[in-house]
Amino acid sequence: MRQLIATDYLWTDGALQTGLAAELSGGELTRIRPLESGEVPDRHVHLLGPALTDLQVNGSGGVMLNSAPTAQTIADIVETQRSLGTGWVMPTLITCESERMRKTAAAARDAWGLDGFLGLHIEGPHLNVLRKGTHNPAFIRSMENATLEILHDLRSAGIPVMLTLAPEMVDAETIRRIADMGVIVSAGHTAATAHEARMGLEAGVSCFTHLFNAMPPMESRAPGIVGVAINSDAYAGIIVDGHHVHWSMVALACRARPVDGRMFMVSDAMATIGGPDHFELYGETISVRDGALINSAGSLAGAHVDLATCLSNAVHHVGLSLQEAYSMAAMVPRDAMRIERPILRSGTPAHEILALDGNLRRISL
Questions:
Q1: Mind spelling out the 3-state secondary structure of 327-354?
Q2: Is 361 a member of any domain?
Q3: Of 328, 294, 297, 335, nearest to 313 (Cα)?
Q4: Is it the case that residue 308 has pLDDT exceeding 90?
Q5: What pLDDT digit, counting tens, does each position of 339-352 carry?
């Protein structure tokens, strides 16, 4: 059955365009064209564009990659996120033992080719224990051959990989070696000084993980890694849930970047997205409390948010334009990973299309 959808804004040719309509039939897009005068559409949406891309998803649908590093877990995470408007996902493994990392890499190879599975984000274990966040300090350690072998195997299989490390804890030669594999090296869970952060960028760091969080605060005489990140032309992810970073600080970071198109959103989602209100991590119960995920120490432990909600927050609370917010959730993540941006074309399945209403709430097509 043919469905004509009128749009206020439709993402095409690298921007939000007006005056366009989309035709869908058989669960897929068949045509984009101008809406003719006097034509009555079947539906009206505020925004239509390719589904979102999330580079940091620890879990969803009641499962965590750390707890069950299998191809089925990857599939469950991807399926849950696709039901919420995020069409492409990088399941994320946080600091753990080398054997669990190997099992996750094997699971990624088994799952590779699954629609919506974009690659693997390995967050840790080569972090600074002073900025461990919810990561288990017992597993934080110096760079080792096992990690290099795992990264090499994943890249040899053609799987995109992001590795979060603390640049002050890994020597420049090793960072360069990892970047030369085609791994996106992202700085996070770090206490790096401004000098150490700049050295990391020179060595091959091209991204920053959840900006502001698990980093020393920026000060007038000590800009630290946050100041270097904001002033650089590297990419930076940020969690726009209102708990991890104050709205005004998100706005500051976005407006202060010297190059456009370098900020992107991540959800840092956990098992509670599309699942129960609690889960186990490192043998500890993490629960949703007032919209945030809290561990037994009362600290944040990941996020209870999906990327479409982050997009809405960026417009309604941060004050970003719809175009900038949408790009941060859908396009810039692909740029950060050096992966081609998605486009709407004839044959695009409906589950790879995001539709939002005037309040920026997701609409099922």
A1: HHHHCHHHHHCCCCCCCCCCCCEHHHEE
A2: no
A3: 328
A4: yes
A5: 999 999 999 999 99
Tell me if 103 sits within 8 A of 142, measured CB to CB.
no
Q: Checking phi first, is residue 273 left (phi over 0); if not, alpha (psi -120 to 50) or beta? A: beta
Q: What is the DSSP secondary structure assignment for residue 124, as one 8-state letter?
A: -
pLDDT one-digit tens code per residue, 44-86: 999 999 999 999 999 999 999 999 999 999 999 999 999 999 9
The CB-based long-range contact list for 172-176 (8 Å cut-off, 24+ gap) reads 172/199, 172/200, 172/202, 172/203, 173/203, 174/143, 174/148, 175/200, 175/203, 175/204, 175/205, 176/203, 176/204
Q: Are residues 118 and 64 in the same domain?
A: yes
pLDDT value of position 298: 86
The span from the CA of 111 to the CA of 102, in Å, is 14
**Is the CB of residue 167 less than 8 Å from the CB of residue 106?**
no
Domain around 292: 52-336
Residue 208 falls in which region: left (phi positive, over 0), alpha (psi -120 to 50) or beta: beta
**Parallel/antiparallel/unpaired status of strands 59-60 and 63-64:** antiparallel
Per-residue pLDDT tens over the stretch 247-289? 999 999 999 999 999 999 999 999 999 999 999 999 999 999 9
Catalytic residue among 268, 290, 306, 357: 268
**Is the model's pLDDT at 144 over the cut of 90?**
yes
Nearest alpha carbon to residue 205 among 169, 174, 234: 234
The CA-to-CA distance between both ends of the chain, in Å, stands at 13
For the question of residue 268 being annotated catalytic, the response is: yes
Domain with residue 175: its CATH number is 3.20.20.140
The answer to whether residues 157 and 187 belong to one domain is yes
Residue pointed to by tokens 């956990």: 270
252/208 same-domain check: yes
Helices 145-156 and 172-180, packing angle to 10 deg? 20
Same-domain check for residues 172 and 36: no
Instruction: Identify the bridge partners of residue 355 per DSSP, sorted by sequence position.
Output: 48
**pLDDT at position 38, please?**
85
Domain count, the chain: 2
